[in-house]
Amino acid sequence: MLVQLLFYGFSAILIAAALGVIVARNPVYSALSLVLAFFTSAALWLLIEAEFLAIVLVLVYVGAVMVLFLFVVMMLDINVEEVKRGFTRYAGLGWFIAFAVIAQMVAVFWFRGFGIDATQGMAPLPADYSNTRALGEVLYTQYVYPFELAAMVLLVAIIAAIALTMRKRPGLKPQDVAKQVAVRREDRVRLVKGVGPKSEISATEGEK
Questions:
Q1: pTM
Q2: Cα Rg of the chain (Å, integer)
Q3: Coil, strand or helix at 204
Q4: Tens digits of residue pLDDT in 39-88
Q5: Which of 19, 43, 81, 201 lies deepest, with the highest CB count within 10 Å?
Q6: How far apart are CA 188 and CA 84, in angstroms?
Q7: Model confidence over 82-110: pLDDT tens digits?
Q8: Helices 2-23 and 27-47, axial angle in degrees (round to 10)
C-alpha cells in the first residue's frame, strides 16, 4: 500500500515537472523543472529496485548534463521575445509529435506490451542479486553497438552546443591560432641600447 502511494505521489510530481519544462517561459525555469523531473524519475527507479539506474540518473543527468544545459542556455543569451514570435510557426508540428508520443504510451499501457502484466507487483530479488552486473552484461554484449552509437550521438550534440556558443558577437575577440604559432621574436621583442648598468633592455611591443 505504501509503495503504491509513493508511486502515485512521485508520478504526479513527475507529470507536473514535465509540464513545467514545456510551459515555463524562462529557459532557466524549464531546465530547473527538468532537474525535478529527473529526481522524481530516480525515485521511481528506486521503487522497482533499480538502484544503479537511479544513481546514474542523478549523478550523470542532474549532476553533469543539466549543468551543461544551464551553461549553454546562459551562454546562448536567448532572446525570449524573438523565440516567441516563431512559436506559432512550429506549433502544429509540436502538437502532432506530442499526440504521437502520448498515443504510443497509451498503447503500451493498454495492450501491456512485452508480456508484462502491470497489475502484478515486482517479484522479490535474492539478496546477492546485482542489477549493475546484469545491466552491464546486457549492455556490453547484446547492445554494445547501439551503446557506442549513442556515445557518438552525444559527442556530436556536445560539439554542436559548443559551435552555437561560438557565434559572432560585438566585442568578441577570438583567437587566431595560426598567427600565434607563426609569430617571430623580431615582431614581439626589441633590443634597446641602455646607458645604465645593463647594456641591453628587452621591451615588448605592448610596453612601447
A1: 0.53
A2: 28
A3: strand
A4: 999 998 888 878 888 888 888 888 777 777 777 776 666 665 566 666 66
A5: 43
A6: 50
A7: 666 666 677 778 788 888 888 887 887 77
A8: 160
Q: Where along the chain do its domains lie?
A: 2-207
Q: Which three cell numbers stand for residue 41?
A: 524519475
One CATH from 3.40.50.150, 1.20.120.1200, 2.60.40.10, 1.25.40.10 for 2-207: 1.20.120.1200
What is the sign, positive or negative, of the torsion defined by CA atoms of 91, 97, 102, 106? Answer: positive
How many residues appear in the chain? 208
Q: Which three cell numbers stand for residue 34?
A: 527538468
**DSSP symbols for 64-94:** IIHHHHHHHHHHHT--HHHHHHTTTTSHHHH
> Angle 57-61-64 (CA atoms, 0-180°, nearest 5)?
135
Query: Is-contact 36 23, C-beta < 8 A?
Result: no
Neighbours of 31 (CB within 10 A): 18
